[in-house]
Amino acid sequence: MVKFGLQFKATLENITNVRPEGEDFRWFLKLKCGNCGEVSDKWQYITLMDSMPLKGGRGSASMVQKCKLCSRENSIDILKDTITPYNAEDSDKFKTIVQFECRGLEPVDFQPQAGFAAKGAESGTPFPEINLQEGDWNEYDEKISESVGIYEVTHQFIKC
Fold first, then answer.
1. CA within 20 to 30 Å of 121's CA: 37, 48, 64, 84, which one?
2. Into how many domains does the chain fold?
3. Where along the sequence do coiled-coil regions lie (predicted)?
4. Chain centroid, CA 10 distance in Å
């Protein structure tokens, strides 16, 4: 099994503690079969709440799937203890925000969507329900009378 880290990078304006919110947060991924190289054409999501048994009673994973091309059973699991917020001091730098334990799969793309949360860097104002699908998000923080935002969202995967 191989671990892959999802590294997140964004420009933060007056905001910190950008993180996925809740155990039902959906990590939208495109996955590649390690056996035949087939890449899923559709976005697939996994959550911490999902748990499927592995073949042969070897535990469970967030997702277990059979490759459409080679029929090999593969799995991916979210490592809950590796979920880390992206903070103001991380702005404009890649930081690993989650790790996935993969058996026969490799994540090749990530699509941030709804379900992120953050707080004002100076004010502490909570900002729930942040959607990063467009790659940018901004709001107005009344406590400091300034705009807050998350811009130029990008990502990469690394082997851990």
1. 48
2. 1
3. none
4. 13
pTM: 0.94
Give the domain range for residue 126: 2-159
SS3 41: coil
C-alpha pair distances (Å), 62 with each of 41, 75, 120, 151? 20, 8, 32, 30
Residue 47 contacts residue 41 (beta carbons within 8 Å): no
The residues, ordered by sequence, that sit 6+ positions from 42 with a Cβ below 8 Å of its Cβ are none
Q: Name which of 45, 65, 46 is nearest 54 in CA terms.
A: 65
Does residue 76 contact residue 67 with C-beta atoms inside 8 Å? no
